[in-house]
């Protein structure tokens, strides 16, 4: 099983960051790659659409409001993986008020691509996503 993780310090308190990204159906609010998100099954599944019109369906598998993190599994996507589970987490930065660290990590099996290719794909997605989050919070 392959894995990757990307972290960024962003210019907002952990509570403010979590209020933006902590909703499972809020990706279009901060991630330009996702144009639309539709909540299904009482909010436990999200159906996402990207700029190419691809559909990505994901199921919420863990949610912790107090610790500010959630995990999800891909049900359907154009990515060459299976067994994909990812976690988005917000941390306080000790001694630094007004900023937070956001970590986006995932583990998966390559399927139709090499492990290195899939790790590079998701490392890029996470890095680009966290860069977009930083820009949204800095605006």
Automatic annotation (TrEMBL):
<dbReference type="InterPro" id="IPR019587">
    <property type="entry name" value="Polyketide_cyclase/dehydratase"/>
</dbReference>
<dbReference type="InterPro" id="IPR023393">
    <property type="entry name" value="START-like_dom_sf"/>
</dbReference>
<dbReference type="Pfam" id="PF10604">
    <property type="entry name" value="Polyketide_cyc2"/>
</dbReference>
<protein>
    <submittedName>
        <fullName>SRPBCC family protein</fullName>
    </submittedName>
</protein>
């Amino acid at each position: 099983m392959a894995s990757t993780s990307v972290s960024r310090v962003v210019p907002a308190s952990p509570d403010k960051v979590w209020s933006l990204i902590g909703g499972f159906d809020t990706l279009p609010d901060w991630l330009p790659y996702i144009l639309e998100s539709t909540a299904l099954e009482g909010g436990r599944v999200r159906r996402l659409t990207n700029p190419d019109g691809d559909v990505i369906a994901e199921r919420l598998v863990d949610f912790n409001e107090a610790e500010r993190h959630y995990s999800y599994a891909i049900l359907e996507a154009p990515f060459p993986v299976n067994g994909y589970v990812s976690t988005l987490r917000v941390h306080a930065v000790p001694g630094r008020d007004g900023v937070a660290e956001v970590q986006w990590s995932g583990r998966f099996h390559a399927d139709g691509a090499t492990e290195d290719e899939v790790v590079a794909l998701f490392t890029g997605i996470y890095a680009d996503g966290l860069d977009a989050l930083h820009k949204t919070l800095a605006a």
